[in-house]
Each structure stands twice: as C-alpha cells, then as structure tokens.
Amino acid sequence: MSPGLMKMWISFGAMGFMIISIISIYFSRYKLKGVFRIITALIAYVFMILAGIIMFLIVISGPTS
C-alpha cells in the first residue's frame, strides 16, 4: 500500500473518531443520566482529542511523492 493511500485510511479513521465523539456527546448531554453520562462524555472527548492529533499529524507530514 502506498504512503498516500495509508494516510488517506488513517484520516478516514480520524473522521470516524470525530463522528463517534459527536454522537457520544449528544447522548451524554441529552439522553443519559448519572454515571453513564460522565463515562460517555469522557470517552467522547478522548476520541475527539485523538482525532485532532491524528489529523494534525497527517496535515503536518505534508504531501507524499
């Protein structure tokens, strides 16, 4: 697999993390109560931070030859 294709799949994974975090934050704010709300929110924010770091590294690494 070429480096460009590998970077594409990694960025798709980061976008998936963002979608999961958006859905989890929605559920933690409006649908869940108690301990589940806190756990879901923490997991969602971890996914969002991880996705941001991955996307930052993909963009900073620049184009592939």
From TrEMBL:
Tell me which UniProt keywords the record has, alphabetically: Membrane, Transmembrane, Transmembrane helix
- What's a Pfam family this protein contains? DUF2768
Q: Respond yes or no to whether keyword Transmembrane helix is given for this record.
A: yes
Any stretches that span the bilayer, and where are they?
A: 6-27, 39-60
- What protein does this entry describe? Putative membrane protein
